[in-house]
């Protein structure tokens, strides 16, 4: 995609609001999977809405992956086939998120002798004042700052955006894209894609926005270090609202799990989350913190941005299948995406009378006939037959042509079945 887009200032909202924007929150691989399912549901249920032709895209953490893909013309249908489906196009192996950060491990290991010497000297100089335990605290600097390698993920995304018709340059996108990260040394949010930060490659900004502390090392950009953008805000919806959009669609995939409600129905894996061990306790704590913070922000938007309609889609707090999902199982990834598709459709149906006039102001109509179909599955809504290649250097082959033909025939078959 070529051509420069004139952008409004990040600060200050225009008086007249128009256009539609999209803000996607984080949540790890689970978050991206949920968002893809929700976006397929929105595309399928709303006439007049082109998810790949909105007026602004904002992504945080895992949401940055999806937002960057959408801004590059990659449809939710194509993302499903690439990231979730177990067919020919599913070229993103789940274990790509679990590649050990060997470079980080090596760098920290090389510093260990120097740190040991410093700790010993500190103790010998003043053994009474600097106890052995305090001196050994120096060795904490040898601990890796991340367990998994985000360089592998960045390289994959860079190859994806290098294909014809896509770009790894914010300034060459047809629609504004903003990816939010947090400066590790100052704690301030930084909006990549905004003036002064639009020279950074999109793939690099995605890596920075999704660098969850403890799991992935901070990403260095222009001498500064950046971590997950959710450090400050969950959605950063204000970044899109500052662009003057009249309708902002938001997807937040992580909500705190209401174990008590599920327990009353007798369908919970653990009587209490505490019985599930440290991972479940940390997951619930993280979800509760970011969701509470997001709710506070959402309540302020009505006053800060009068005339703007903000519509949020997120899971129910009783969704055990989503909370306990194994993100690295293709079967459960497909199930999670299908659940997101179903939940989003149900929320649209439940709020149809409220949302219909809001959408109508922006030329969007609810497909009540599709929402009324209780058996509609996410695979029924996938209609984009275009193949998606992650490697721009892949040469045409008979096998590739056969796969493309097979994909087109499957889409046609589903269409004829619905006719």
Short description:
The chain has 419 residues and is of the alpha/beta class. Helices cover 45% and strands 10% of the residues.
Structure, described:
- Helix 1 (28-45) packs across helix 2, helix 1 packs antiparallel against helix 3 and helix 6 (150-161) packs antiparallel against helix 7 (202-209).
- Strands 1, 3, 4, 5, 6, 7, 8 and 9 form an 8-stranded mixed sheet that branches. This protein has a two-stranded antiparallel sheet with strand order 2-10.
- It contains 16 helices and 10 strands.
- With 419 residues, the protein is an alpha/beta fold.
By DSSP, the count of extended strands is: 10
The rounded Rg comes to 23 Å
Residue windows where pLDDT falls under 50 for at least 5 positions: 1-14, 392-404
The secondary structure category is: alpha/beta
Task: List the SSEs and their pairings.
Blueprint: E1 20-24, H1 28-45, E2 46-47, E3 56-60, H2 62-71, H3 76-84, H4 102-125, H5 132-136, H6 150-161, E4 177-183, E5 189-192, H7 202-209, E6 219-221, E7 224-228, H8 237-241, E8 247-251, H9 259-264, H10 278-304, E9 309-313, H11 320-323, H12 330-350, H13 352-360, E10 365-366, H14 368-371, H15 378-381, H16 398-418
Parallel strand pairs: 1-3, 1-8, 3-4, 8-9
Antiparallel strand pairs: 2-10, 4-5, 4-7, 6-7
Helix pairs in contact: 1-2, 1-3, 1-12, 2-7, 6-7
């Amino acid at each position: 995609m070529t051509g420069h887009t004139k952008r409004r200032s990040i600060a200050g909202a225009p008086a007249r609001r128009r256009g539609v924007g999209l803000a996607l929150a984080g949540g790890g691989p689970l978050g991206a999977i949920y968002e893809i399912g929700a976006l397929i549901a929105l595309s399928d249920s709303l006439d007049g809405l082109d998810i790949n032709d909105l007026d602004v895209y904002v992504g945080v953490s895992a949401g940055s992956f999806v937002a960057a893909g959408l801004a590059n013309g990659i449809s939710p249908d194509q993302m499903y086939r690439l990231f979730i489906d177990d067919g020919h196009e599913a070229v993103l192996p789940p274990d790509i998120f679990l590649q050990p950060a060997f470079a980080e491990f090596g760098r920290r290991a090389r510093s260990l002798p120097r740190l040991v010497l410093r700790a010993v000297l500190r103790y010998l100089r003043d053994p009474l004042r600097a106890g052995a335990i305090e001196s050994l605290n120096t060795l904490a600097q040898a601990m890796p700052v991340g367990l998994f390698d985000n360089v592998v993920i960045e390289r994959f995304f860079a190859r994806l955006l290098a294909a014809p018709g896509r770009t790894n340059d914010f300034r060459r996108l047809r629609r504004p894209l903003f990816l939010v990260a947090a400066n590790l040394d100052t704690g301030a949010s930084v909006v990549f894609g905004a003036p002064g930060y639009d020279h950074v490659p999109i793939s690099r900004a995605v890596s920075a926005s999704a660098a969850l502390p403890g799991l992935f090392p901070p990403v260095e950009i222009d001498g500064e270090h950046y971590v997950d953008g959710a450090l400050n805000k969950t959605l950063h919806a204000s970044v899109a609202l500052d662009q003057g959009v009249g309708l902002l669609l938001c997807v937040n995939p992580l909500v705190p799990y209401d174990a008590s409600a599920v327990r009353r129905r007798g369908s919970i894996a653990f009587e209490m989350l505490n019985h599930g061990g440290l991972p479940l306790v940390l997951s619930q704590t993280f979800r509760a913190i970011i969701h509470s913070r997001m709710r506070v922000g959402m309540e302020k938007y009505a006053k800060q941005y009068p005339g703007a309609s903000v519509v949020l889609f997120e899971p129910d707090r009783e969704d055990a299948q989503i909370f306990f999902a194994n993100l690295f199982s293709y079967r459960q990834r497909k199930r999670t995406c299908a659940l997101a598709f179903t939940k989003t459709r149900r929320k649209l149906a439940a709020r149809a009378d409220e949302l219909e006039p809001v959408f109508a102001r922006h030329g969007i109509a609810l497909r009540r006939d599709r929402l009324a179909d209780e058996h509609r599955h996410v695979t029924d809504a996938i209609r984009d037959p275009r193949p998606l290649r992650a490697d721009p250097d892949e040469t045409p082959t008979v096998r590739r042509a056969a796969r493309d033909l097979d994909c087109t025939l499957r889409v046609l078959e589903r269409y004829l079945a619905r006719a």
